[in-house]
TrEMBL record:
InterPro entries: PLD-like_dom, PLipase_D/transphosphatidylase. Transmembrane segments: none annotated. This is Phospholipase D family protein. It comes from Aquincola agrisoli. One of its GO terms (molecular function) is phosphatidyltransferase activity. Residues 248-270 have a biased composition (Low complexity). Residues 1-24 form the signal peptide. Residues 248-299 are annotated as: Disordered. SUPFAM superfamilies: Phospholipase D/nuclease.
């Protein structure tokens, strides 16, 4: 089919979907039995591993390990799924139908085969093309899938889904940006990564520099409490009440790497209770039995990647957890933020806690955020810090290295003002073969920044999902861990220094009031200077300049 016919067919389909479904609304929330995390004192192999490492440690302290490398992060998630004995709770903004996600979900399904209760909560914005796979997962008697703040109509593409819900734009514009996996309420991973190849350095063309943390101790119970709050909220719909049953009528082969893992129809001996999981839709066709899936089952991962993952997973099962123990707490928005009209109230959001920590800084703030639109409030905060002599460093994405050019428009309006205050401003470059030092995974590909973190006074570290922009402040729900440890701060500082040494432009004013300069240092210490946006075509710059007046800051 020629490109013109394809475009015409898509346009016709789009118009039909809009005309037929433009008034689609959320269905009534069906009766659900509330479920909760297990008691943190429940015996399990994971709990025993944590207890073995925390001997002599204050019971108020939590264990933390940074997960900077992409494959290390994926191996850690797989290892937790493999070792879970009672429960797995997963909450993510995006679970993409890609090789790394399939590899993890195969292990999650294998856990369900052992009788582990699995709760999977996904923001519905990025689920296009996964309806059939999600329905198959829900039919496993130990797996329940819920969609947060769903777009119920026009589900065959993101465009049609959005257009079918335009009448409810205020609701659908607020998304659940949280990211966490909790195993047996004993160990958890949270941070900036969604589930998809680019987050684990498995994409062929472009990967994300990202950051998660493995945690144990009291902060895990805080993560579980936040998960329960979202899971039982009025915006968490059982997937089979949103996805048409016909979505799974055509069953792909279990070995096909293009599909998420199939679910097993037969219940394990442990079964499921109504309290644990609502019954599956009566109209759902039965599925053939499926055995537990080994790590090397077809998922789309390269054989050499599978071999490395198997080695890392085996090592993580046997080796010490290597946790650092420290005071830690969770900041998390409440689900009610998604229902708020206008500016959320302070008790619903973590942004005020985040900026409050910045205000408390005495010597230095180092902010790492891929999407940085400070607004007038943020500029006033930074101006106050600089007036008190606080050093402010910011690492964000370059125009060539962002996956959200519209956000870069908002950010670019503030660069000269920030530099005039004395802020040290860096932009991660995105050249092919660009920066990926060994401690960040060693992959040579185009790189985009996705990590969200902050260092304050060399002793406090924040890692989470929140960007410093209006969307994170007012629209999306976010979460972040606050950890107090000079050793952890020094470790993260070293990781950032690795990637910034030759992988980030330093910006400054040209000294003559004519604009900006981007300076890049190479491996030999030589410097190259550019006076225009690096690695970006003039055509792209012109296009962004034309749409700049149409990019409202509050929507970025």
């Amino acid at each position: 089919m020629g490109s013109f016919r394809r475009l015409s067919l898509f346009a016709a389909t789009l118009c039909s979907a809009f005309l037929l479904q433009a008034c689609a609304a959320l269905p009534p929330l069906p009766p659900r039995t509330a479920s909760r995390a297990i008691d943190p004192g429940t015996p399990s192999p994971l709990a025993q591993r944590v207890a073995a490492e925390r001997a002599g440690v204050s019971p108020q302290h939590s264990g933390v390990r940074l997960l900077a490398g992409g494959e290390e992060a994926l191996a850690t998630l797989i290892a937790l799924a493999d070792q879970a004995e009672h429960t797995l709770d997963l909450q993510y903004y995006a679970v993409l139908n890609e090789a790394s996600s399939r590899a993890l979900l195969q292990r999650v399904r294998a856990a369900a085969e052992r009788g582990v209760r699995v709760r999977l909560l996904i923001d519905d914005f990025n689920t296009s093309g996964t309806d059939d796979a999600l329905l198959r997962l829900t039919r496993h008697p130990k797996i329940e899938v819920r969609l947060y703040n769903p777009l119920p109509a026009g589900r065959f593409s993101i465009v049609t889904r959005v257009m079918a819900s335009l009448h409810d734009i205020g609701r659908i514009n607020s998304r659940m940006h949280n990211k966490q996996l909790v195993a047996d309420n004993a160990l958890a991973v949270t941070g900036g990564r969604n589930l998809g190849d680019a987050y684990f350095l498995q994409a062929a063309e472009a990967n994300f520099v990202d950051l998660d943390v493995l945690v144990a101790g009291p902060v895990v119970q805080q993560l579980s409490a936040t998960f329960d709050r979202y899971w039982n909220s009025e915006l968490a719909y059982p997937a089979d009440t949103i996805i048409p049953a016909s979505a799974a009528a055509s069953e792909p082969q279990a070995s096909a790497p293009s599909a998420l893992p199939q679910a097993r129809a037969q219940a394990p001996a442990a079964g499921r209770t109504a309290r644990e999981d609502p019954a599956p839709a009566a109209s759902a066709p039965p599925l053939p039995p499926a055995a537990s899936v080994p790590l090397d089952a077809p998922s789309g991962l390269a054989p050499e990647t599978v071999a490395r993952l198997r080695e890392q997973v085996d090592q993580q099962r046997k080796a010490p957890l290597k946790l650092q123990w420290m005071p830690a707490r969770l900041w998390a928005d409440r689900p009610s933020k998604s229902l708020q009209q206008g500016t959320p109230s302070p008790d619903e959001i973590m942004f005020d806690d985040f900026t409050g920590l910045m205000r408390s800084a005495r010597s230095e703030v180092f902010l790492i955020t891929p999407y940085f639109v400070p607004g007038q409030g943020g500029m006033a905060l930074i101006r106050d810090m600089r007036a008190r002599g606080v050093r402010v460093r910011i690492l964000t994405a370059s125009l060539a290295g962002t996956d959200a050019p519209a956000v870069h428009i908002g950010y670019s309006r503030y660069r000269e003002g920030l530099l005039a205050m004395g802020v040290e401003l860096f932009e991660l470059r995105a050249e092919p073969g660009g920066p990926q030092p060994p401690r960040w995974g060693g992959v040579h590909s185009r790189t985009n920044l996705h990590a969200k973190a902050m260092l304050v006074d060399g002793r406090t570290v924040v890692v989470g999902s929140m960007n410093f922009d209006p969307r994170s402040e007012n629209l999306n729900t976010e979460m972040g861990l606050v950890m107090r440890s000079p050793a952890l701060a020094k470790q993260l500082e070293g990781l950032l220094a690795d990637i910034m040494r030759t992988g980030a432009y330093r910006l400054d004013l040209d000294g003559e009031g004519r604009g900006l300069r981007w300076t890049l240092t190479d491996e030999q210490g030589g410097r190259s200077v550019s006076t225009r946006e690096p690695d970006v075509s003039m055509l792209k710059l012109l296009g962004l300049k034309l749409i700049s007046p149409l990019a409202p800051e509050e929507m970025l």
